[in-house]
Amino acid sequence: MSTSIAGNRIDQIRSKVEPLRAAISGHPLYKRITGPAEVQVFMQHHVYAVWDFMSLLKSLQNALTCTQVPWVPVGTAETRYLINEIVCGEESDVDPEGRRMSHFEMYLAAMEQAGASTAEISAMLKAINAGAEPSAALQAAQAPPAAHSFVDYTFQVIAGNKPHVMASVFTFGREDLIPQMFYGLVRDLGQRFPDRFGLFQYYLQRHIEVDGDHHSLLAIEMVNQLCGDDPVKWQEAEIAAIRSLECRLELWNSIHDQL
Fold it and tell me: How far apart are CA 83 and CA 186, in angstroms?
């Protein structure tokens, strides 16, 4: 596929999702986060999106690389590089002290520092480790309904086992969105709560730095590689991108209502 054609396809998806992106990046939720209590509520909802992001990421790695023994080549070396590079950064980043940890584990540490409850997400993880399916684990842990719905869509995408669809949701619903979504919140938290929310600020800054400057570019190229010259795949990628942002907006609306 030529670079110009791929760029046009990406631009077309971006054009279609722009109203949703604008609604999310300019959501009134951010203005409602005025103190520690509001930050805690936000984190207790958002942590599920951090967790299922990792599940989507690993599903892409499973689809695009060989993760079994004996090893055999899977897909192309280009797509293997793209997903493995992103996995490395998301699963093995460094905290402010230079210790290796996933972004999910970093988020849990930030929640604890901020005084946000991790009881529900910990109960969900316990149920997952005991063999429960994600939806049942969320139900057992009494996760917020909107977070439950958000995760359910992610796992519907995973169950569909279409790498180009997973990559589109990953790129347009997650990686490519984060820099806009969190910029204002990072700036405000850094000014008003530099001590209590230091880890949360660091987590968000890492996403802006890594996702905005590196991972989002890799993810876009991954969509290009996986959709190729297939118009059906590009259409499916566009539909999935739109739905993923609709789910994000629904989650943001729910958190706003809680505040």
Answer: 27
